[in-house]
Amino acid sequence: MNEIPTTPQNTQTDTTNLNQIGLNPQKPPDIPILILPWYEKYKTVLIIAGVIATIVAGSLVFQAATPKKIVLPPIPTPTLYPTPTPDRKLSPLSGLQEFRDLDAEVSSLSAHLDSVSLDDPSLVPPTLTLPLGFQN
Q1: How far apart are CA 117 and CA 134, in angstroms?
Q2: Residue 44: exposed, middle, or buried by beta-carbon count in 10 A (0-12, 13-18, 19+)?
Q3: Distances (CA, A) of 50 to 14, 37, 117
Q4: Low-confidence ranges of the chain (pLDDT < 70)
Q5: What predicted TM-score, i.e. pTM, was given to this entire model?
Q6: Alpha-carbon distance values, 66 to 60, 104, 107 (Å)
Protein backbone atom coordinates (compact mmCIF):
# COMPACT_ATOMS: atom_id res chain seq x y z
CA MET A 1 0.00 0.00 0.00
CA ASN A 2 2.93 2.24 -0.41
CA GLU A 3 1.77 3.61 -3.72
CA ILE A 4 3.20 6.75 -5.09
CA PRO A 5 0.43 9.10 -6.01
CA THR A 6 0.46 9.79 -9.69
CA THR A 7 -1.09 12.70 -11.44
CA PRO A 8 -2.64 12.42 -14.85
CA GLN A 9 0.00 14.75 -16.11
CA ASN A 10 2.89 12.39 -15.11
CA THR A 11 1.14 9.34 -16.52
CA GLN A 12 0.51 10.90 -19.89
CA THR A 13 4.13 11.95 -20.28
CA ASP A 14 5.38 8.47 -19.42
CA THR A 15 2.98 6.90 -21.94
CA THR A 16 4.08 9.28 -24.64
CA ASN A 17 7.72 8.47 -24.02
CA LEU A 18 7.04 4.73 -24.21
CA ASN A 19 5.10 5.09 -27.46
CA GLN A 20 7.96 7.02 -28.98
CA ILE A 21 10.47 4.23 -28.41
CA GLY A 22 8.11 1.57 -29.77
CA LEU A 23 6.72 0.02 -26.62
CA ASN A 24 3.08 -0.33 -25.67
CA PRO A 25 2.49 0.71 -22.07
CA GLN A 26 -0.48 -1.63 -21.61
CA LYS A 27 1.36 -4.70 -22.89
CA PRO A 28 4.61 -5.84 -21.29
CA PRO A 29 7.52 -5.89 -23.71
CA ASP A 30 8.34 -9.19 -25.44
CA ILE A 31 11.83 -10.04 -24.33
CA PRO A 32 13.00 -13.28 -25.89
CA ILE A 33 14.27 -15.55 -23.13
CA LEU A 34 16.39 -18.35 -24.43
CA ILE A 35 16.07 -21.37 -22.22
CA LEU A 36 18.63 -23.97 -23.13
CA PRO A 37 18.10 -27.64 -22.46
CA TRP A 38 20.28 -29.04 -19.70
CA TYR A 39 22.55 -30.85 -22.14
CA GLU A 40 23.45 -27.64 -23.97
CA LYS A 41 25.00 -26.25 -20.79
CA TYR A 42 27.24 -29.26 -20.34
CA LYS A 43 28.01 -29.98 -23.99
CA THR A 44 31.80 -30.02 -23.60
CA VAL A 45 31.69 -32.18 -20.48
CA LEU A 46 29.33 -34.63 -22.17
CA ILE A 47 31.59 -34.90 -25.23
CA ILE A 48 34.66 -35.62 -23.09
CA ALA A 49 32.73 -38.16 -20.99
CA GLY A 50 31.46 -39.81 -24.19
CA VAL A 51 34.98 -40.12 -25.61
CA ILE A 52 36.29 -41.63 -22.37
CA ALA A 53 33.35 -44.05 -22.17
CA THR A 54 33.96 -45.11 -25.78
CA ILE A 55 37.64 -45.76 -25.10
CA VAL A 56 36.88 -47.80 -21.97
CA ALA A 57 34.16 -49.82 -23.71
CA GLY A 58 36.41 -50.41 -26.71
CA SER A 59 39.27 -51.66 -24.56
CA LEU A 60 36.94 -54.01 -22.68
CA VAL A 61 35.58 -55.42 -25.95
CA PHE A 62 39.09 -55.79 -27.35
CA GLN A 63 40.28 -57.54 -24.21
CA ALA A 64 37.32 -59.93 -24.26
CA ALA A 65 37.71 -60.64 -27.98
CA THR A 66 41.45 -61.32 -27.84
CA PRO A 67 42.12 -65.02 -27.24
CA LYS A 68 44.32 -65.71 -24.29
CA LYS A 69 47.44 -67.70 -24.99
CA ILE A 70 47.75 -70.59 -22.59
CA VAL A 71 51.22 -72.06 -22.48
CA LEU A 72 51.36 -75.57 -21.13
CA PRO A 73 54.67 -76.88 -19.85
CA PRO A 74 56.11 -79.53 -22.12
CA ILE A 75 55.54 -83.07 -20.95
CA PRO A 76 58.62 -85.26 -21.33
CA THR A 77 57.96 -88.31 -23.39
CA PRO A 78 59.41 -91.55 -22.11
CA THR A 79 61.88 -93.19 -24.43
CA LEU A 80 62.62 -96.83 -24.80
CA TYR A 81 66.32 -96.25 -25.09
CA PRO A 82 68.29 -94.14 -22.61
CA THR A 83 70.09 -91.10 -23.88
CA PRO A 84 73.72 -92.00 -24.48
CA THR A 85 76.28 -89.98 -22.59
CA PRO A 86 78.61 -88.09 -24.84
CA ASP A 87 82.21 -89.22 -25.09
CA ARG A 88 84.54 -86.95 -23.22
CA LYS A 89 87.80 -86.10 -24.82
CA LEU A 90 90.40 -86.14 -22.10
CA SER A 91 93.12 -83.58 -22.00
CA PRO A 92 96.60 -84.76 -22.91
CA LEU A 93 97.75 -83.58 -19.46
CA SER A 94 95.47 -86.02 -17.70
CA GLY A 95 97.63 -88.93 -18.74
CA LEU A 96 100.85 -87.55 -17.17
CA GLN A 97 102.20 -89.04 -13.95
CA GLU A 98 102.29 -85.67 -12.17
CA PHE A 99 98.60 -85.17 -12.77
CA ARG A 100 97.83 -88.60 -11.37
CA ASP A 101 99.96 -87.90 -8.28
CA LEU A 102 98.15 -84.61 -7.73
CA ASP A 103 94.79 -86.36 -8.02
CA ALA A 104 95.87 -88.98 -5.43
CA GLU A 105 97.03 -86.29 -3.01
CA VAL A 106 93.74 -84.38 -3.31
CA SER A 107 91.84 -87.59 -2.59
CA SER A 108 93.92 -88.36 0.51
CA LEU A 109 93.52 -84.77 1.80
CA SER A 110 89.73 -84.85 1.44
CA ALA A 111 89.62 -88.26 3.19
CA HIS A 112 91.68 -86.84 6.08
CA LEU A 113 89.37 -83.77 6.33
CA ASP A 114 86.34 -86.04 6.48
CA SER A 115 87.83 -87.92 9.42
CA VAL A 116 88.65 -84.79 11.47
CA SER A 117 86.15 -84.06 14.26
CA LEU A 118 85.42 -80.38 14.63
CA ASP A 119 83.79 -80.86 18.05
CA ASP A 120 86.89 -80.98 20.25
CA PRO A 121 86.01 -80.76 23.97
CA SER A 122 89.40 -79.23 24.78
CA LEU A 123 88.49 -76.19 22.71
CA VAL A 124 86.07 -74.62 25.20
CA PRO A 125 86.05 -70.82 25.15
CA PRO A 126 87.57 -69.21 28.24
CA THR A 127 85.40 -67.72 30.94
CA LEU A 128 86.34 -64.15 31.64
CA THR A 129 85.62 -62.63 35.02
CA LEU A 130 86.35 -58.96 34.90
CA PRO A 131 85.53 -56.63 37.79
CA LEU A 132 83.39 -54.15 35.87
CA GLY A 133 81.44 -52.92 38.89
CA PHE A 134 77.98 -54.10 37.84
CA GLN A 135 75.67 -55.32 40.55
CA ASN A 136 73.93 -58.65 40.21
Answers
A1: 39
A2: exposed
A3: 55, 18, 80
A4: 1-30, 32-36, 38-39, 136
A5: 0.28
A6: 10, 65, 62
